[in-house]
Amino acid sequence: MLEKVGEFVGKLAKLVTAGAMVLFIMLSGCETGQENTERSAMISSNEPTLQAAGNEIVPARSIVVGFSQLGSESDWRRANTRSIQEAAKETGIQLILENAEQSQEKQFEAIRAFVKQKVDVIAIAPVVEKGWEPILREVKQVGIPVIITDRLVEVSDPSLYVSYIGSDFYEEGRMAGKYVMDKLLRAEGPIGIVELKGTEGSTPSLSRGKGFHDVIKQNPNLQVVESEYANFTVEQGNKVMRELLERRSKEIRVLFAHNDDMALGAIEAIEAYGLKPGKDIVIVSVDGTRKAFERMVAGNINSVVECNPLLGPYLMQAVKEMLDGRTLPKRIVTPERIFTEVTAHNELNNRMY
C-alpha cells in the first residue's frame, strides 16, 4: 500500500510544480466575499482536443466531475475550494461545483443532480460522517465512481467509494497534544484546558479530539475542564470563548481550538477579557492559515498544526488515474507538519492561504 501511495504522490510532482504559481496568484488574490460565487460554479478548462471520427473532426469529450463542497465557513474551506477549481482548469477537467452551506440534505440533492447530469466522477467533502450509505448506494447502482475528500464517511460497505483524499485528523490531534505536554512539562498542576470543537459529528471534530485526549491523558495534571462546539467559525469561537471565560477564567491555562478561525475568534474574546493570549493562556490550533501565522509571529498563538487544504491536484490526478483504469489507494493522506511561535516567522511567507 505504501508503495502505491508513493507512486501516486510521485506522479503529482509535475502537476503540482506546473500549477504552483497559478495557485499562488489565485489564492492570494481572492477575497473571502467570493464564496457566494462557489455555488453551482462550472469550471470550463482548455478547449477539448480534436479527434478524428472517420473523415470528420469532432471535439473530444472532457472529463466531468461533480463536486459537493460542504460549505464556505472558513479561510481553510475557501482555499480548499479554490484549489479544486484551479486544479480542474489546469488538468482540462470540467468541474460542476455545488456549495451545500453546511447542509447534508443539500449535499444529497447535489449528488442526485450529478447523477442526472451523468458526470464521470462524483467527489464529496461530507459535512458529517454518518448518514451516507443510502445515497452512496444510489450512486453505485448507476455506476458512477465516488471519491471522498477532506472528511470521512461512516459506511458498512467500503466499496461505496473508491478512495479518501485528505488529512490524518487523529494525528493532528496527537501533534497538538504532544505540544501541550512538552510546553507545560514542568508546570505545576492542575492545568485547566478548554477545547473548541468544530461541527458536531464531523471527522475533524471527532478525530482531532480523540487524538488530543489520547495524548494528554498521560499527564494527570492536564485536565480538560470544558469542551464546546463552535462550528469552525470566528464568530462562534469568539462567543463560546467569552462564555467559557465567564465560567472558568481562573482555571483556563490552555486553549485547544480545532481550527484557526475558532482560535482567532477566541483570541478576540481573551483580549477583551483583559488577558494576554499566548501568555496567560497557551493557544494551540489546527489548519495553518496565514492569519494564524501572523498571530503566531505576534505571540498570540503558541503553535499551529498544519492541515493542508490544497487537495485539488491530488483529486484531479486521482480522477485521471481511476478513469485510466488504474487502482487507487483506499486512503491518500497529505503530508503535514506542526509549527510553533519559534518557527512561524520563517514560514509566514510560504503560506498560500
**Percentage of β-strand residues:** 15-25%
Give helix and strand order, one letter per element, not per position. Answer: HEEEEHEHEHEEHEHEHEHEHEHEEH
Shape: elongated
Overall mean pLDDT stands at 87
Helical run tally: 11
Helicity range of the residues? 40-55%
How many strand units?
A: 15
Oligomer: single chain
**Low-confidence regions:** 1-6, 8-55
Radius of gyration: 21 Å
> If strands are numbered along the chain, what order do they take across the biggest sheet?
1-5-4-6-7-8-14
Q: How far is the first residue's CA from the last residue's CA? A: 31 Å
The largest β sheet comes out as:
7 strands, mixed
* Secondary-structure class: alpha/beta
Task: Give the tags.
7-stranded mixed beta sheet, disordered N terminus, 353 residues, alpha/beta, 11 helices
Structure overview:
It is a single chain. This protein has 353 residues and is of the alpha/beta class. The N terminus is likely disordered. It is built from 11 helices and 15 strands. The strands form 3 sheets. A 7-stranded mixed beta sheet has the order 1-5-4-6-7-8-14, with helices on both faces. The protein has a 6-stranded mixed beta sheet with strand order 10-9-11-12-13-15, with helices on both faces. Strands 2-3 form a two-stranded antiparallel sheet. The two termini are 31 Å apart.
